[in-house]
Write a structure and sequence with these properties.
Blueprint: E1 2-4, E2 13-19, E3 22-30, H1 36-56, H2 64-69, H3 80-95, E4 103-105, E5 111-113, H4 116-127, H5 129-132, E6 137-143, E7 146-150, E8 159-165, E9 168-178, E10 181-187, E11 207-214, H6 217-229, H7 234-239, E12 245-250, E13 255-258, E14 265-266
Antiparallel strand pairs: 1-8, 2-3, 3-6, 4-5, 6-7, 7-10, 8-9, 9-14, 10-11, 11-12, 12-13
Helix pairs in contact: 1-4, 3-4, 4-6
């Protein structure tokens, strides 16, 4: 997904770096968009994400999550953030009827701790605290295409979040206007078929992508992944989640808005 503004809004100041194996980008507009406080807040965001990577990276053998998964550490020996993420995963597993899980079966048949379905949104939400401390400044922070936004100026237009078509990522299937809130999409457009229904261990059928709009990126990211994992039941399950709206794109390219049909505006592309 990508963030933009309308023509009548001042052009935001933009920053971009890579961490946690994904691009992190920021758009700032308002009082501190281009001054030292804005730049310092961006530096704090990146420092927080780098610290989270040391704890949660499943690609680092020395990370806390890898050592916990191998049984070398107890949860009580890990940073408290890891216990928080594991608890969020357990809650999501219950809420999704088992379709979502932070545990998966590894290539050798052993059970592996993999909280990536929680960590990206959670980490970006946490890191955005540095941006929330900026007075009179709006922001839109993207972590690998999932975004958390804030708009303080009542006269400012909403951030316009483009939702990629899962069958053709070069074009948009919808644009989601968000003033303050978060948007996350789960699907296979960029990483291939890496998502499975934890109940079966197999990729879900019938669904191509799920976009969720919620009050926090933690919630949006988890529910997008959980809804996707439920496959053909994605729209029904998501529609029963309080405070969430979104868009489900099916394998045949058709789309179902969730939450009254007002969340996503077709682009006509």
């Amino acid at each position: 997904m990508s963030a933009g503004t309308t023509a009548r809004a001042a052009s935001p100041t933009r920053y971009v770096e890579h961490v946690m194996g994904m691009p992190i980008s920021l758009a700032l507009r308002g009082r501190h968009a281009a001054d030292d406080r804005g730049r310092a807040a961006w530096a704090e965001v990146m420092a927080a994400l780098r610290a989270f990577d040391l704890t949660f990276s499943t690609y680092r053998g020395d990370s806390y999550v890898s050592r916990l998964g191998r049984g070398e550490l107890a949860l009580a020996d890990c940073p408290p953030e890891l216990a928080e993420v594991v608890a969020l995963g357990a809650e999501a597993e219950r809420d999704s009827g088992g379709a979502f899980s932070v545990w998966r079966t590894g290539p050798d048949g052993t059970t592996v701790l993999d909280p990536n379905g929680v960590v990206k949104g959670w980490a970006a939400d946490r890191a955005a605290a540095a941006l929330r401390s900026l007075d009179a400044t709006d922001f839109c922070l993207s972590a690998g295409g999932d975004l958390v936004c804030r708009t303080l100026d009542p006269d400012a237009p909403p951030w316009r979040i483009g939702v990629e078509h899962p069958h053709d990522p070069g074009r948009l299937i919808a644009v989601v206007p968000v003033a303050t809130g978060a948007v996350a999409t789960s699907g296979t457009a960029h990483r291939g078929q890496h998502l499975v229904d934890a109940r079966t261990g197999r990729p879900p059928s019938g669904v191509a992508s799920v976009t969720v709009v919620a009050g926090s990126l933690t919630i949006a990211d988890i529910d997008a992944t959980a809804a996707y994992a439920r496959g053909e039941d994605a729209a029904r399950w998501l529609g029963a989640r309080p405070g969430r709206t979104g868009l489900v794109v099916w394998a045949d390219g058709s789309a179902t808005p969730v939450g009254g049909g007002t969340t996503a505006v077709p682009t006509g592309a």
